[in-house]
What we know:
Layout: E1 31-33, E2 40-42, E3 55-59, H1 65-81, E4 100-107, E5 110-121, E6 124-132, H2 141-155, E7 160-166, H3 172-180, E8 184-185, E9 198-204
Amino acid sequence: MAKTPxxxxxxxxxxxxxxxxxxSPKGHFLNTPLAGPGTYRAISYTATVTTASEAVIAxxxxxxxxxxxxxxxxxxxxxxxxxxxxxFALDAEGLLDPAVTFFSYRDDGTVLxxxxxxxxxxxxxxxxxxxxxxxARGRGVGRAVLAHLLIVARxxxxxxxxxxxxxxxxxxxxxxxYVSAGFLPADPFGGYHRTEDNTFYSLAL
Length: 205
């Protein structure tokens, strides 16, 4: 459940158009252009879930009502675990930062998970807003979103992906997921500061 420091999000007015940031043309990526410029979708694949359904991870608009609902649950969870001054979860407006690419995981159209990646510099990305709906936990949704974000990071030529997350037991599942994917404890980055409420991980690509 990645978060970001206060003050780093972009500011988009409510009337501004939303266009997803396309991935780098370097290498293979899971996003393919649709009819409209700036519009991307993910190639469908059968996710590692307990059902045999087909799920799609795709660039999405964080202002969509069903996406907003899961983002609000994510923000509420983060604030229930971490003091506000040390909680850096992004709301929908923050996820409209041009440096952020936001994805949703949909199963038969239902949003079961979300995640995002922010470009810190041409070789460094940050994971953000990782959240799985409570009813879908234990089905591999978070792992699938994480794998997708790492594919996007590699396609852009990033050399490293980092994240900040919480230290309480409520974040234990998230920390275990990152460690299982090869992330290692790391120093603060991107304006963060280490506190008893914040911990950091990084993965060399």
